[in-house]
Amino acid sequence: MPEYLAPGVYVEEVSFRSKSIEGVGTSVAGMVGPTRFGPTRGKPEVVTSFNEFQRVFGDLEDLTFDSTNPQLNYTALAAKAFFEEGGKQLFVSRAVNYASPTAGYASRTDSNNDVTFRSRFPGSMGNFTLEVDWQDSENLLLSIATSAPAEGDIVFIKATGLPDVAIANGALDSARFPMDIQCLARRVGSHFQIIGDLAIISADDATPTTASDLVDTGNHLVIANMVNDTDTTISYTRVTAKNPASGALADGTAAVLTFSEETDLSDFFDGSHWGTLTTLYGTLNAAGTIFTVDSSGLNAGVVSPITLNLSALASAPSSVRAVMAQRSFSLSVHNGGKDAPVIYTYGPINTAHEGKGSLVEMVNPNPDKKLDKLTSPIGVTFDSSIASGDVIAALYDMFDPAAMSPSDPLALDGPRYLISMTGGSDGSLPVATHYTGIVDEVNGSSGFAALEDVEDISIVATPAAAANESSHQGIVTELRKHCRKMRYRVGIVDSREGMALSEARDFGSLFDDSRMAMYYPWVVVSDPRGKSDTIALPPSGFIAGVYANTDVQRGVHKPPANEPVVSALRFAQNINRFQQELLNPAGINCLRTLTSGGNRVWGGRTLSTDPEWKYVNVRRYFLYLERSIEKSTQWVVFEPNNERLWENVRLTIESFLYNEWANNRLLGTDKTSFFVRCDRSTMTQNDIDNGRLVCEVGVAAVKPAEFVIFRIGQKTADSNG
Q1: Could you tell me the fold of the domain covering 29-98+444-616?
Q2: Backbone angles phi and psi of 486, in degrees to 5
């Protein structure tokens, strides 16, 4: 009651009309069954296309239970059929049978247990191949020829025709000159000093000469820099690594040094470390002059770090060497082997062990966004003791050595950095109890229990149930219980493959219920996996799509029959009229190939023996009316229970039913097709005293023209009849 305490004008909003009822949707389907991937618990998420289904629940490949023979992935194939037949919204609850909550997950860990990759969900599809694509893929090497190296510069010297005045050690016999020298040296004043005491020297008199022969008694000076002779040629080459586009180098930047052909550096370094090589793993310094060869196991045979002055690479052909930084990468997830399609890519990722952009942050095992929890296929965890540099070492420990060192280094694909995950499995074959699921408000419900959290579902199917004869009846029983519990749902029952007519009749007779509809036989389609020409599938996925499409195109009052199964090539059994005469009275709906109509749904009955609920469209239309009225009259609760409320309720429902009649969904005229009573004739004083409002609604539903009969007889020309 508003209060008026001060003089003034008061404007108030009031309603002079009854509230309207909006019809609920009836085309949303729910599906329960095993898949190759996806969440096993929690409120199901809607998928609106088969591509979206694949991102969450995996592909069409076969399932393998208990390492036995593969079984067709009926749930995924049924989901595909649902969308092909016109379905728009599908909720999927995955049924699984694992020995423990942690079973079935694929993973990969390095030998030091620093980094662990784990599939987001259990399943055989989780045996992914991960591929690291380094983002700093540019060759950082710069080769600079200089005529006057600066003090302290380390350069590679190639000198030919050196006279004796070019050598600081006067003890050498002049008969040995001229000399040719190749060496790595540092500029010291006006002279150079050989690094590592290694050089390639050839003397004019062919007398063996080593680097130690060239130095003076102080072991300082080697080659004079003051040579002015037309017969002498000296070149100085300095090789460094430039800063990549992603930012300046820092000490310890991970890098890889590669050669397109086998190269031997033993002439300029300790020969015990080198033979022929094509790839070296290590780090660069900030100046880009030193490459430190890793000794932690990345390089076979290297037991202690090796300092490599990059200028020594001037001895190798410039067209076949490269150094690339390895500090930023993307991570691609292949659905299977290295040549399988990429289903997800993470990046850019750095090699740090913590912080923004690190592997554990970019491939979060517990992402905040629900979409990432559903579609991100893997997660990464780090050991608590992980330190700087451990990430890249762990990655290299997990890389496939054969892919890193291809047999043909000049091949176009080149080295690939691949990590194979293993251990993913489909568990055991789910049975009735796994379809039923459990109610768990903390960890999330499963099976049919998970579908209870989605009120929009009106069609439910279990296509994989029919593939297992031993548990088929039990699963359909659980489906029936679920539909009765949720009230406004209809379950689609599959016959088993190859069932005889008598078997189909007997099976259908076990479920006398208007909320159940059974279809026979299976549907033959082209094999979308490409493994065979055709495969046979349970009909429920197709029929759910037909239901949904019919509801959208015509309305739930229209029987979902005499509708084409557009993706069917044929049906597993060719049912004729005489065979259907055995099945139709038992409520078994046949799928038939008609000479004038193609592959069609040729039945629209429920499994109920109650004549009132014989037809699927009548049952579903009443469920639609009931739920629409229930959902749109919640405002009535706790309103004053008097004549004004009764009148409002009556007018609200009458307006809704009049609109249904106007849309040709009811039989009769606007006066005879329905009635609504809500007054003293429907309620006793005891009802009113106990807070009950009773409203009676009668509706004349439209039945399908299942049997079309034309009576034709002869007439004579002079007959008046």
Answers
A1: Rossmann fold (3.40.50)
A2: -85, -5
Other Cβ atoms closer than 10 A to 608: 20
Q: Where are the alpha helices (DSSP H) in 575-697?
A: 577-583, 616-632, 643-662, 685-689
Do 16 and 77 contact (CB within 8 A), yes or no?
no
CB 349 within 8 A of CB 363: yes
Q: What is the pLDDT of residues 288-329, one digit of tens each?
A: 999 988 887 777 777 788 888 888 888 776 555 788 888 788
Q: What is the DSSP string of 171-214?
A: TS-GGG-SEEEEEEEEEETTEEEEEEEEEEEEETT-----HHHH
Q: What is the dihedral of CA 329, 335, 338, 344, to 10 degrees?
A: -20
Residue tagged 């020297």 (tokens): 201
Cα 489 to Cα 480: distance, rounded to the nearest angstrom: 10
Could you give the strand order of the β-sheet that contains 233-241, starting from the edge strand earlier in sequence?
A: 141-146, 233-241, 154-162, 179-188, 191-203, 223-224
Check residue 225 and give its pLDDT.
55
Judge whether residue 69 has pLDDT over 90: no
Angle of helix 74-84 versus helix 540-553 axis, rounded to 10: 20
**Max Cα–Cα distance, the chain, nearest Å:** 147
Q: Is residue 359 over pLDDT 60?
A: yes
Q: Half-sphere exposure (CA, 13 Å, Cβ side) for 47?
A: 24
Dihedral of CA atoms 488, 489, 490, 496 in degrees, nearest 10, equals -160
Distance CA 95, CA 435 (A): 6
Nearest residue to 341 (alpha-carbon basis) of 287, 377, 394, 302: 377
pTM above 0.85, yes or no: no
- DSSP code, position 49: S
Instruction: In the chain, list all ranges with CATH 3.40.50.11780.
Output: 29-98+444-616
Do the Cβ atoms of 126 and 333 come closer than 8 Å? no
Contact 566, 560 (CB under 8 A): no
Q: In angstroms, rounded to a whole number, what is the distance separating the alpha carbons of residues 545 and 85?
A: 5
Tally of CB atoms within 10 A around 712: 4
d(CA 596, CA 598): 6
Contact 40, 122 (CB under 8 A): yes
In terms of average pLDDT, the best of 4-18, 59-73, 197-211 is 59-73
Strands 570-571 and 115-119: unpaired
Instruction: Note if the bond before 178 is cis, omega within 30 degrees.
Output: yes
SS3 of residue 371 by DSSP: helix
Q: Which two tokens stand for residue 556?
A: 């739930």
